[in-house]
Write a structure and sequence with these properties.
Distance between the termini: 49 Å
Number of helices: 14
CATH topology of the largest domain: nicotinate phosphoribosyltransferase
Number of domains: 2
Helix content: 25-40%
Number of strands: 18
Structural class: alpha/beta
Shape: elongated
Oligomer: single chain
CATH architecture of the largest domain: Alpha-Beta Barrel
Largest sheet: 7 strands, antiparallel
């Protein structure tokens, strides 16, 4: 009963036991079992069914939790490696299968719903993070400030996939723990408001931060609480000292009049004129893809991204049976509008561009340099392919971003 729950979110046990499914799967399971058909061996593939119109590529995410969900079930699982960048359709217009489950349908039909959710959210967060990283470039600090912009139950998941998508760090404690990292953040306005009221000068809050925070915490001072951002930034440097301060953070809300880029530009100029060139300028508050280039040009060194990542568009996926095994032979079958049969996805580079090609599962490579992307991760419920660490996956994403030059697709 909902009244017995402290918070309204699913438990791990409820997900693992299939209670996070749509009711028609429970009914289907009962019907198939009644006629002895629940052990029918099927091949079920997952493809992208919907995504934002301005997205030309997607970062595959969610595999970690899918494998945890299917572990010890009598199924084989093939999938793109976590963090693989792919186009929803191949060069010939065929939808790319990103995940393939092979085994008795009764073993996994109740998990279709949560699997789709894992993939939708994981790919959504990772893709948005990668898009922001690609715009910002390799050397700009980007921290996930999104925990306050989403449901607490999903905040660590958002942190995890924003990190592998290219962010440098996260502010949420649990999210950082799952990544094996230290959480990163500065200070809230409330700290400075209290010192202003009690001590008469909010700069006493900066001093307290410097005094009580351990040495490994960067001295980044919030400088937009009471007065002009430029004057507060200069005051913060002079209060803490050029040899101790790391940077300043401007959290100018959209409701405040003025051009954010011009404010940054003035702060940068006046810091430089006083010999404070090494002071970093960190920005937060409504930062997104469209504002980053202008703010970088103005002199920003890093960003705290909240709403843009927490509200990232999820990627819609669909699962479809595309083959059934009878007498140890796979037969292609699917509903109308789908491409039946077991498939492999290949990727290769040619003339500086990246191509994706879908072929029947046992076909020869379409190009001498083509690499197969659907890798066997699970055999009869046992994970046989180690999922790389978050750091390894993040570097995999970044390496793909650096050479990303997707060919123009024929249906665009």
């Amino acid at each position: 009963m909902s009244k017995d729950r402290i918070f309204l979110f699913a438990t791990h046990d409820e997900i693992l036991t299939g209670k996070l499914t749509d009711i028609y799967f429970i009914r289907t399971q009962k019907i198939l079992k009644s006629d002895g058909l629940d052990r029918t061996n099927v091949g079920a593939e997952f493809t992208v069914s919907g995504y934002p119109k301005n997205y030309k590529w997607i970062v595959f995410g969610g595999l970690r939790d899918v494998l945890k969900l299917l572990e010890k079930k009598s199924v084989d699982v093939y999938a793109l490696p976590e963090g693989t960048i792919f186009t929803p359709r191949d060069f010939n217009g065929i939808k790319l299968p990103v995940l393939l489950i092979m085994g008795p349908y009764g073993e996994f039909l109740v998990y279709e719903t949560p699997i789709l959710g894992f993939l939708a959210a994981g790919s959504g967060f990772a893709t948005k993070a990668a898009r922001i990283r690609k715009i910002a470039g390799d050397n700009v600090l980007i921290v996930n400030f999104g925990a306050r912009r989403t449901h607490p139950a999903i905040a660590p998941f958002c942190d995890y996939y924003s990190y592998i998508g290219g962010f440098n760090a996260v502010s949420c404690i649990v999210g950082a723990e799952l990544l094996g990292k230290a959480p990163v953040g500065t200070m809230p306005h409330s700290l400075l408001i209290i010192y202003k009221f009690v001590k008469g000068d909010h700069s006493e809050g900066w001093k307290a931060y410097d005094k009580y925070m351990p040495p490994e915490v960067p001295r980044i001072m919030l400088t937009d609480t009471f007065s002009d951002e430029v004057e507060e930034s200069l005051k913060a440097v002079e209060t803490i000292g050029i040899n101790r301060i790391t940077g300043v953070r401007l959290d100018t809300p959209s409701s405040r009049k003025g051009n954010f880029a011009d404010i940054v530009r003035e702060v940068r100029w006046k810091l430089r004129m006083r010999g404070y060139d090494k002071v970093k300028i960190f920005l937060s508050g409504g930062i997104d893809e469209d504002s980053i280039p202008t703010l970088l040009e103005a002199g920003a060194d890093g960003f705290g991204i909240g709403s843009a990542i927490a509200r990232a568009p999820f990627i819609d996926y669909a699962m479809d049976i595309v083959a059934i095994n009878k007498d140890n032979k796979w037969y292609p079958i699917s509903k109308r509008g789908k491409f039946d049969g077991l498939k492999q996805v290949w990727r290769y580079e040619k003339n500086g561009k990246i191509y994706y090609v879908v072929t029947p599962f046992d076909s020869e490579p379409p190009h001498p340099d083509a690499e197969p992307l659907l890798i066997k991760f699970m055999e009869n419920g046992k994970i046989i392919q180690k999922v790389p660490s978050p750091d390894e996956t993040r570097e995999y994403v970044l390496s793909q971003l650096r050479k990303l030059e997707i060919h123009k697709l024929p249906w665009e």
